[in-house]
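Backbone geometry tokens:
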Amino acid sequence: MERKLASEFPQELLNLFDLYVHGDIDRRAFLDGAQKFAVGGVTATMLYESLAPNYAWAQQVPKDDKRIAVDNISVDSQLGHGSIKGHFAKPAKAAGKLPAVLVIHENRGLNPYIEDVARRAATENFIAFAPDGLTSAGGYPGNDEAGGKLFQGVDKQKMAEDFIAAARWLKARPDCNGKVGVVGFCFGGGMSNTLAVRMGADLSAAAPYYGGQAPAADVPKIKAPLLLHYASLDTRINGNWPAYEEALKANHATYTMHMYEGANHGFHNDTTPRYDKAAAELSWKRTMDFFNKYLRG
């Protein structure tokens, strides 16, 4: 299927799809709402299929890329679900100890896009681990719709402990320099903020993408520098930014926020039309520069 751009869809339809992706409406409600845009021989189902992920588009770094070494591993998580599985990647040839990056997925589990993001980080000379928050439910089921349904049934507090355990495991690895950062997308963006609160000074940097903000009362616990990426059309998430920024300023937190004009929630995800190539590439460069600054010193 040929990739379409967000600009080829009405913004109202994209917003409707965003509600579906985040569980505010089910597929039937999306299809009912999309019916008004089904014109010229295009059905609501066809619109759904054109907006749904196509993971063939996401592979920037194949698993057999000679620059990296990859593995699927399991990490102990005694305060969470006992263990959490994930996709591990590191440079094939590394001199000395390296910084580590935890990559946290959206609310669908560890899909091929997020695995690829971990491999992208490895090509930038980081140790990377992308855990699967659906491990306790059998793991990512192979498609996002089924993954979203499983995600709703997982204990979110225990899932948070799983991600914290994964970050601490990375930090303690003998080939790690003792510094770990986190980058997350959508749900993973919110979880990145949560890890900044929960881990305090044990986390060296956090780069949330369009993620839910930490409560203002928890902001004093944040010690890691933050690099926050937001999409200007993502009003659902952006509404809470002013209060978050006020709390960050009041507590003298180190943070930088970038608002990507004309971009939709999910703009970094290169498997759907919401992908914005310019915003995705610029934000990723900023993220790598940010991690190089705070994780290598």
Observations:
- The CA atoms of residues 107 and 277 lie 22 Å apart.
- The radius of gyration is 19 Å.
- The chain has two domains: 6-52, 60-295.
